[in-house]
Amino acid sequence: MTQRKSFGSDNHAGVHPAVLRAIVDANPGDAVAYGADAWTERATAGLRDVFGADDAFLVLNGSGANILGLSLLLRRHEAVICAESAHINTDECGAPEQLIGTKLLLVPTADGKITPELIAEKLSGRGDDHRSQPGVVALTQSTELGTCYALAELRKIADFCHDSDLRLYLDGARLANAAASLDCTLAELAECADVLSFGATKNGAMGAEALVVMRPGLAADAPDLRKQQTQLTSKMRFVAAQFGALLQDDLWRANAAHANAMARRLAEGAAAVAGLDIVHPVQANAVFARLQPRHIAALQRDWTFHVWDEQENVVRWMTAFDTTESDVMSFLTAIRDTAPA
Ligand SMILES: Cc1ncc(COP(=O)(O)O)c(C=O)c1O
Predict the structure, then answer these.
(1) Global pTM?
(2) What's the rounded mean pLDDT across residues 310-326?
(3) How far apart are CA 246 and CA 237, in angstroms?
């Protein structure tokens, strides 16, 4: 029997064949280590070009990109305002606190998106040296709850940050999904940010992320900090080759658009099942649904996905670049078949 497609995470997916080919093509012969190779030069030039960026640095994973990005933006005593649901808060084992020594000032949100009003609530202790001093706002695009900030929302936040002496960091582990969803360029999404990450791993890479520095004057410490933070890999050409493949003919966009379309299809089908509610707008490649606990248990016997909120009986279903329509149809059949009468 063929293995059922996982709806647990876009990280469960394999590697896009074009990415694998690019790794294989980069293999023959030697190349200078630590990024002084032609693949890295091409990939970083490509990233600078598509983002209109000042500079770009390849790293190994999304948590590493977040740490490097925040460390470029924070002064030693400063704190980070972010959504309670932000990956830097929920899923990085306290890395920002431990590795940069910062404090996260958490903003509760309904849909993973923070607003100028919510940021403003965290600024009341400014100038009081007994209180944490916010220096950075960290957004995630697309968010951990599968929603996207519209460009106008990003601009509003960026203007607010600018006027409030706050720098803006964007966790773009799924930036490709947001660009596909909003039908905009990566440069348009990045415009608001001082620094952002651009995720490839969830978009068909084997393991490759980039830190993109938008505002001139911020990149000077990045090479040393990347090394200190153990994100400078010696055989960098293979990380760079992955970006080369994804940037070629905008493969990143095709992969993301497909994953998003599969999530929409899944949400549309699931919404028609009695007793099941879709709890957040499906704007990227994640579907959040509320089901009865026995429905969740029955479905989990054969299918892989995460229970996101046990109290609220909310599950997360994620699609990837390689989720097929037939995977979605089979999963929908199982959702219908296991629904309590
Ligand atoms: C929004 C977001 N940011 C960052 C990451 C970090 O990824 P990694 O596991 O590569 O460190 C993830 C991974 O799931 C994520 O969902």
Answers:
(1) 0.97
(2) 98
(3) 14
